[in-house]
Amino acid sequence: VQLVESGGGLVQAGGSLRLSCAASGDTFSINAMAWYRQAPGKQRELVAAVTSLGSTDYADSVKGRFTISRANAKNTMYLQMNSLKPEDTAVYYCNAYDSKIGYEYWGQGTQVTVSS
């Protein structure tokens, strides 16, 4: 399974960005997908997750501002980020969990920079 993120960039505080993650390869057993982020000098943290049935979960820091969604037919996941803050600056990674083999896949990451 290959994951490719896109949509990162530079935005002013209060602005919006939409990240996309396209999955290809043997995606049949992919169950949960998620977005993580890692800021310089910090550990990677979970931002939002979505299951194949559409159940979602969010980090407290992004609730009400970010929306995760998934288009199963397109093997694509999205993260709509609104009201962005400088503290949202990080590299954002796409993650997919294959429940059949118990393995996690990662994308290469996309940089999001929010200026104050």
Describe this entry's structure for a reader.
The chain is globular, with a radius of gyration of 14 Å. The N and C termini lie far apart (37 Å). The strands form two sheets. Strands 2, 4, 5, 6, 9, 10 and 11 form a seven-stranded mixed sheet that branches. A four-stranded antiparallel sheet has the order 1-3-8-7, with no helix packed on it. The mean pLDDT is 95. Helix content is 0%, strand content 57%. A hairpin with a 5-residue loop joins β5 and β6. The protein has no helices and eleven strands. With 116 residues, the protein is mainly beta.
Highlighted features:
116 residues, mainly beta, 7-stranded mixed sheet, 4-stranded antiparallel sheet, 11 strands
Concise structural overview:
With 116 residues, this protein is an all-beta fold. The chain contains no helices and 11 strands. It has strands spanning 2-6, 9-12, 17-24, 30-38, 45-50, 56-58, 66-71, 76-81, 90-98, 103-106, 110-115.
